[in-house]
Design a protein that fits this description.
- This protein is of the alpha/beta class and about 200 residues long.
- The chain has one domain (about 1-195): Rossmann fold (3-Layer(aba) Sandwich), CATH 3.40.50.170.
- The chain has 7 helices and 7 strands.
- A 7-stranded mixed β-sheet has the order 3-2-1-4-5-6-7.
- Helix 1 (about 15-25) packs parallel to helix 7 (about 170-195).
- The chain starts with a strand and ends with a helix.
- The model has no long low-confidence stretch (mean pLDDT about 95).
- The structure holds glycinamide ribonucleotide.
- Glycinamide ribonucleotide binds near residues 10, 11, 118 and 179.
- The site of glycinamide ribonucleotide (GAR) has 14 residues, from helix 1, strand 5 and helix 7.
């Protein structure tokens, strides 16, 4: 069985979209894959409750309880590695996980570490992507699912979705439009990853 570990920091709507797709598309039967753990660095992340209600194991690792980024990432790596199965290393899915990972963590999980970023990469890596797209006068914005490499918000692109930027958009209205597309492309990217694994 391939365990999927989803890391979140907030509402977890992308996580929920992946869980729903896994159920509806029977990932367990097709690819022996299941969402086994939802882990958050924040105890009050809304997605934890949703995951619990859907029968998925949850875990909190509060980054503030660790003396350094390296120490937190070492604990995170151990938590994820507990879900490795012989010949079936866990797939790690970052879904609104608002922590920058250390090169050591990324190196250890590279090739099985996916992220979603709310912009059309390579444009607007980093934070405040929607406001930056509006300020730049972009006519289009979007989201990208990519493999994680040591360079922040770079790495091989798996999926992208494009939405228009409308004349009176705020960062909030644009974010909402992008998010609906994220819920389509993230499950699709994970499915494609499982197909080629
Ligand atoms: C999503 O829009 C995701 O692209 C973004 O956070 C949101 C999480 O929403 N991720 C980043 O900004 C990562 N740098 P969700 O918790 O409802 O899935």
């Amino acid at each position: 069985m391939r365990n999927i570990v989803i890391l979140i920091s907030g509402g977890g709507s992308n996580m929920a979209a992946i869980v729903r797709a896994a159920q509806q598309e029977q990932w367990e039967r097709k690819w022996h894959a299941r969402v086994a753990l939802v882990l958050s660095n924040k105890a009050d992340a809304g997605g934890l409750q949703w995951a619990h209600e859907h029968g998925i194991a949850t875990q909190v690792l509060d980054h503030k309880a660790y003396p350094s980024r390296e120490a937190f990432d070492a604990a995170l790596a151990d938590a994820v590695a507990a879900y490795d199965q012989p010949n079936w290393p866990a797939l790690v899915v970052l879904a609104g996980f608002m922590r920058i990972l250390t090169p050591g963590f990324v190196q250890r999980f590279e090739g099985r570490l996916l992220n979603i970023h709310p912009s059309l990469l390579p444009a607007f890596a980093g934070l405040h992507t929607h406001q930056r797209a509006i300020d730049a006068g972009c006519r289009f914005a979007g989201a990208t699912v990519h493999g994680v490499t040591a360079e922040l918000d770079h790495g091989p692109i798996w999926e992208q979705a494009v939405v228009p930027v409308l004349p009176h958009d705020t960062a909030q209205t644009l974010a909402a439009r992008v998010l609906t597309q994220e819920h389509i492309i993230y499950p699709r990217a994970v499915r494609r990853w499982l197909e080629q694994a």
